[in-house]
Amino acid sequence: MKQEIILIAEDNNVLRLALEEMLSIEGFVVLAAANGIEALSHMDVLTPDLIISDISMPEMDGYAFFEQVRANPDWLSIPFIFLTARGTKDDILTGKDLGAEDYLVKPLNRIELLTAVRSRLERSRQLRVVRLREAYEASLTMLANAIEARDQYTRGHVERVTAYAILLAKQMGWQGKRLEELRFGAILHDIGKIHVRETTLRKNGPLDPEEWEEIRQHPTIGASMVKDIPYLIPAIPAIKYHHERWNGSGYPYGLAGEEIPIIARIVAVADSFDAMTTTRVYQKARTPEKAYNDILKGAKNHFDPVVIAAFKRIWENGEIQKVAI
Ligand SMILES: [Fe+2]
Ligand SMILES: [Fe+2]
User: Fold this and answer.
1) What is the tens place of the pLDDT at every residue in 266-320?
2) Quick one: 119 and 156 in the same domain?
3) Which ligand minimizes its atom distance to the CA of 157?
4) Is the backbone peptide bond immediately before 209 cis, with ω within 30 degrees of 0?
5) Can 284 be counted among the known catalytic residues?
6) Nearest CA-CA partner of 256 in 300, 297, 212
7) H or E element at residue 33
8) Do residue 174 and residue 307 come from a single domain?
9) Which of 82, 106, 169, 206 is exposed most, by the fewest CB atoms within 10 A?
């Protein structure tokens, strides 16, 4: 693992050396500065993973240094710990207004210092993971929407299918990682349509066998598109099997009942409901009420009864209607 870099700004030589030593022994790379200006010049070269700064220092004090750090968008998320000899309530409150996260009051001991440093580093690691995941999800949604846009009539399809699928799964008691996997599966369910020609997607009339074959392949192609992305592997069953039907009459594999992975059985209901409530080349949009009744009518043949029971409950408590257009 990469060594983490800690920047110390402290004008007291003895204390600065002591801090440097305590942290280097623990395996951190330590950059030391006697005031805010010196600390900033270190940051022009290396971005620290965490900053520990004294408050009263000559040239540039801790508060001014903190403000400079936060003014730079690249440094916004660096954990910043104030070190104060005063430790008075007023000092701490002034610091709080600035939005600093932590304080260490001098004199400090080794355990206190290391505990604060480690917990702040851990929190910032977790935040980075969350941000990364959000950015990842936003890019995938953008990609999926770009593909859906070729279909013209499916505006918002990706977001709605995802919303319905999440509502269904939550109703079925899903949480945490499983929900996350379902979210990606729902976002990407039609990604394989990138290989279907626009003339086929937009055809107003019956498809010829070749065109129908193109459509039939979109689940398999979609699954193979993401197969090398470890983070998306759990989403593959949603992509690959979302057109399978409970009675085995779906495509492309003709799986039936519980042979169809549950994640795909959920996406199937969400996808069908949205397809029914939006205008397509081959049909006019049905009202949510009509689509709801049609889903229930076809339920025995097409959908998992457990998913349908959840669908009924979220319809009855009005959750579906909030998403439906
Ligand atoms: Fe599909
Ligand atoms: Fe779809």
Assistant:
1) 999 999 999 999 877 667 788 899 999 999 998 889 999 999 999 999 999 999 9
2) no
3) 2
4) no
5) no
6) 300
7) strand 29-33
8) yes
9) 206
Report the mean per-residue pLDDT for the chain: 89
Q: What angle do CA 69, 74, 75 make, to 5 degrees?
A: 30
Residues 108 and 154 in one domain: no
Its domain, for residue 116, covers: 5-125
Query: What single letter denotes the amino acid at residue 307?
Result: V
Domain boundary among 91, 125, 159: 125
Q: Express each pLDDT in 40-94 by its tens digit.
A: 999 999 999 999 999 888 888 888 999 999 999 999 889 999 887 765 555 555 6
- Centre of ligand 2 to C-alpha 228, Å, is 22
CATH number at residue 215: 1.10.3210.10
Active-site entry in 2, 193, 240, 322: 193
* Distance (Å) from CA 73 to ligand 2 centroid: 38
pTM confidence score = 0.72
Tell me, what's the pLDDT at 286?
A: 85
For 213-268, write each residue's pLDDT tens digit: 999 999 999 999 999 988 899 999 999 999 999 999 999 999 999 999 999 999 99
Give the contacts of 101 (CB within 8 A, at least 6 positions apart).
Answer: 79, 80, 81, 120
